[in-house]
Amino acid sequence: MAEYERPEDHVKDYILRFSLDRCALGSQGYNRVLLQLFGFMGHGKSSLINSCKYVLGDGDYKARAKTSRSHGGVTVNRKAYRLTRTITIVDNRGYSRFNAFETGEIYAQLGNFVPLNEKVEWTNDFETMISRLEDSEMDPNFTDLTVPIFVYSVKKGLNDGEKRETKEFIENCRLMTGVYPIVVLTHKMSGDYTKAENDFKLMGVEQIIKLENYTKRDHHKTKERHKELLKFLYCTLEDVKFQMRYPKNPRRERIERKKFLIKFLHDRDMKERKEKDRRRLDRQGYMRVNSTGLLNVIYK
């Protein structure tokens, strides 16, 4: 019987006692598991954090992470919340879409190059991003083992453009961290979670968890909700245990993440420059055509 299918108290105890030191090759230089939540604004990242704190604690429900009732989203800081001595969950700033203005910052958060508990400012400037990367080397973090978690509300379906952008993001998550992100489908009772699940499977996602978060308005404890949330945490730790079966080098992995991010930023900057040049040439061509036409009218 799978661990998360056992009585909830057993699974909860497993999560609370989880230690990297007990992995197959030990901690290998890591001292913390960082569950990094990503996704569109207002899709339930903050509610997921509050729910995880609720099921792991013994007290009343508390809205530690600020949430929004709409799909607007309120998180602008990259804020960390400690779940256990080993596990910390991070509410990264959400985004409206995967555009050039935000993607660089998203990957900087994913690579752990943006300080925790500080405001995340979107920027599309290559020099500014590189400067921030250099600043991050003043106090580099080599000891966090990142697990990317993509949070998506089934209330809102993905259009074709969003599917392409999301698939690219998921693939880049794998390239940066070495693992596919776990997808958490929220508001499962308020939309077609079967279609959303199939969409993400086609993107190559291996683990998809469907759940209903606790909220300030609805936090009556139920067995099914507790089981779903504990299953989510259990699956993340099983993924960690699997990854830790193999030799790891935290410093080298950070360097590789930085290389990926610099290349991504450079390629994005070059693409933006080419697009600007193309628009400028189009405008110049339009002006020449109009000028020639006007002269023909004048001298006709």
UniProtKB/TrEMBL annotation:
InterPro entries: P-loop_NTPase. This is Uncharacterized protein LOC121398159.
